[in-house]
C-alpha cells in the first residue's frame, strides 16, 4: 500500500466532512496537536524506565488522548455525543498535576526552561501545547468545536510545566529562577 495519495498536491486536504486548504485554521489546530504528540513521544523516549515508570504510562495515555483531541477538531460538523475529549480526562490531569507538584520544591518566581535534557523537552511540550490551545481557540471563534478540547489543552500545558519541574527534581537539578522576576507565586 502506498502512503502517498497525491490528493493534496494542490494545497488541499481532507478533513472529516469535507476538504479544506492545508493552511485552514482547522488543519493548523489539529496539526499543532500532532506536532505536540511528536514532542511527547520524544520526552517519553528520554525517560529512564526505573525513574519515570509512573509518568511514562501517563505520557502514553496522553498521546492517545492527543489523537482524540485532534480528531474532535478535524470534524467539520460533529454532534456533541460524538466528542472524544471528555471532562473526566481533564480531572484526571489535575490529579496527576497535584501528585507531581507534591514532589517539587515550592515555587516563588518564574523559572527558565531547561535544567535536564528531559525537562527542556517537556518545556517544549508545554509551549507547543499552549500554541495548540491558541489555535483551537481561534478555530472555535469561527466553527463549532468541542469546548472540552480547549480545556484539556489548557490543563495539559500545566501538566507539562509540573512534569518539567519533576524531571529536574528527580534528576537532582534545581530549576533556574528568572533573576528579574518578582515573587509571583504564592505557596
Automatic annotation (TrEMBL):
GO MF term (any one): corrinoid adenosyltransferase activity
Keyword ATP-binding: yes
Pathway noted in the entry: Cofactor biosynthesis; adenosylcobalamin biosynthesis; adenosylcobalamin from cob(II)yrinate a,c-diamide: step 2/7
InterPro entries reported for this sequence: CblAdoTrfase-like, CblAdoTrfase-like_sf, PduO-typ
Entry EC no(s): 2.5.1.17
Keywords of this entry: ATP-binding, Cobalamin biosynthesis, Nucleotide-binding, Transferase
One GO biological process term: cobalamin biosynthetic process
Catalysis: reaction(s): 2 cob(II)yrinate a,c diamide + reduced [electron-transfer flavoprotein] + 2 ATP = 2 adenosylcob(III)yrinate a,c-diamide + 2 triphosphate + oxidized [electron-transfer flavoprotein] + 3 H(+); 2 cob(II)alamin + reduced [electron-transfer flavoprotein] + 2 ATP = 2 adenosylcob(III)alamin + 2 triphosphate + oxidized [electron-transfer flavoprotein] + 3 H(+)
Keyword tRNA processing: no
Chain ranges of the Cobalamin adenosyltransferase-like domain: 3-167
PANTHER family, alphabetized: CORRINOID ADENOSYLTRANSFERASE, CORRINOID ADENOSYLTRANSFERASE MMAB
The protein's name: Corrinoid adenosyltransferase
Organism per entry: Paenibacillus albidus
Lineage of origin: Bacteria, Bacillati, Bacillota, Bacilli, Bacillales
Gene behind this protein: yvqK
